Amino acid sequence: MLPNLVVDTTVLPPADRFAFWYALVAQETAPAHISSGHLDDFVAYAQAIDLGRIRMTSLRYPSLDSIRPTKLVRRADCDVYQLALPLTGRSTLIQDRTESTLEAAHHFTLLDIARPHVARHRVDGPGLATTITVQMPHAALPLAPDRLRRLLATPMPSRVGVGGLLVHHLRSIASHPEQFEPAQAEILGGVAVDLLTAALAQYLDIEDTLSPEARQTTLRARVVDFIDRHLDSNELSPSSVAAAHHISPRSLHRLFEAESTTVAELIRAKRLEQCRRDLGNPLLRQPIQAIAARWGFPDKAHFSRLFRAHYGRSPQEYRAGVARQDR
After folding, report:
1. CA 47 to CA 55: how far, in whole Å?
2. Which spans of this chain does the record mark as coiled coil (predicted)?
3. Which residues make Cβ contacts (< 8 Å) with residue 139, sequence separation at least 6?
4. What is the DSSP string of 136-190?
5. For residue 58, how many other CB atoms are within 10 A of its CB?
6. CB 4 within 8 Å of CB 34
7. Rounded to whole angstroms, how far apart are CA atoms 111 and 167?
8. 3-class DSSP state for residue 195?
9. What is the DSSP letter of 59?
10. Do the Cβ atoms of 130 and 86 come closer than 8 Å?
């Protein structure tokens, strides 16, 4: 599992919760003046994950206002950018005379912690707001500071284009940090920085300035996203993937050389994982052969051999084991 810090204010007495959260925000993000209508019983959660040069934090909290004035900025040596991705609730952000309201799960934005800003987070109903933040040094983003300044507090799409790939990457890490090894942390952070750089460059229409490494990372992410969306297609193959991205099969192979896998192996592993999930779903009582065929394995015997080699059990044994656990 990736190294992470988990915080739950409900383990503290209600009177101590807000003070603890206030100190946590100052430590994990940047000092700010925070106010809320829930000071008497501040229920909030946080999970911080170190990814090499960057730090990603998943936050859940009630409605609040956060103001980082010039006075607090001057006290700290904090040349850091912060990506803000609201998943639920409404977030209004103000920086450098730009004010915007981000639509949850539709937009992300960039803030400069070294400059004053205001953030207002509101929750509709009794639940909590949910936000993912990513902090990185200014030097981590290889784009001109004057260009990045034009984007501060500007809503950028998080469901389409490179922004969608970036958000998918971040949410997969935040949702399941246990699926990654600690040694992968720096690689995952590097991918996030490359995707963010590409998303910002795409928004600024300066993609031609990206480094070859950032372009390769973005293309790899696009390829994996394409594979995920076409796993149930009989036409999915390395050749069809290459054609869809206007590159040769040889170029596609080179793109994944550093990943210790081929595109064919990646497709097969992802399809096997979909089969495993369906076999473990107690509400899905389809025959094993039907599940296998749906995910591109029409030959029952071949599928059974692949599944056993990958998971150490036959499909029948796996399904029976899950059923016993559910009793």
Report:
1. 10
2. none
3. 79
4. EEGGGS-S-HHHHHTTBT--EESSSHHHHHHHHHHHHHHH-GGGS-GGGHHHHHH
5. 23
6. no
7. 16
8. helix
9. E
10. yes
Q: How far apart are CA 321 and CA 45, in angstroms?
A: 34
SS3 state of residue 78:
coil
3-class SS of residue 66: strand
Q: Does domain 235-327 have CATH number 1.10.10.60?
A: yes
Q: What is the CA radius of gyration of the chain?
A: 22
Q: How many CB atoms lie within 10 A of CB 206?
A: 13
What backbone phi and psi angles, to 5 degrees, belong to 97? Answer: 65, 10
d(CA 213, CA 104): 31
Q: What is the CATH architecture of 4-229? A: Sandwich (2.60)
Per-block mean pLDDT, blocks of 10 residues, the chain (327 long): 89 94 82 91 94 94 94 81 94 95 94 94 89 95 93 94 94 91 92 95 89 90 92 94 94 88 94 94 91 95 96 94 76
The model's pLDDT over 207-231, given as tens digits with 9 standing for 90+, comes to 888 888 888 999 999 999 999 999 9
Q: Identify how many contiguous H helices and E strands the chain contains and give both numbers.
A: 12, 12
Q: Which residues, in sequence order, are bridge partners of residue 82?
A: 111, 135
- Which among 150, 262, 268 is positioned nearest to 206, based on CA atoms? 150
pTM for this predicted structure: 0.82
Domains in the chain: boundaries: 4-229, 235-327
pLDDT digits (tens, 9 = 90+) for 135-183: 999 999 999 999 999 999 999 999 999 999 999 999 999 998 988 889 9
Q: How far apart are CA 20 and CA 320, in angstroms?
A: 46
What is the C-alpha to C-alpha distance for residues 101 and 107, in angstroms, rounded to an integer? 9
Pairing of strands 45-51, 98-103: unpaired
Q: Is 93 exposed, middle or buried (0-12, 13-18, 19+ CB in 10 A)?
A: buried
Residue whose tokens read 């993609």 = 207
Backbone φ, ψ for residue 122 (5° rounding): -125, 145
Task: Look at residue 111 and give its three-state secondary structure.
Answer: strand
